[in-house]
Amino acid sequence: MSALAIKTFVSWLWRMIGWPGVVAATVYFYYEGVPVLNRLPIVDQIPIMREFGVGRVELERREAVSTATTELLGAADLAAAKAVIEKIQRDRETAVMLQRQASAEAAELKQKDQEDRDALDAATAADNDGDGAYYTDGDRRRLCSFRKRYC
User: Of 36, 43, 61, 92, whose CB count within 10 A is highest?
Assistant: First the structure.
């Protein structure tokens, strides 16, 4: 559109409805948007045309939807973070419990090992042979099953 066409349209509009009508139409189109302009995709990209083409009401609605979506996602992220924290705490408690059980089992095994060593020392001290060690027939058979050179 040329400037002359716009000027002609505005002067015609001024003669038809007067200055109160022009002001009322401007305010109406500012808030609600121009019905033909809001269908054009390029109107959203031009700041001044966005106000008249899309309308202030639609822009506020879009902003409200965006804010609500952001808040909802923030709440969902917070809930997910809390769930992760709870899982980590449960895993930590399980790990502490397992560590205590492992420590108790290790202490029992250490006690049993010490008892076995004491029993071996007692058996070694009770061995009264002159050389301190001897092979029985069972030892010889076992050695023969491993290697033939002991037979």
Answer: 43
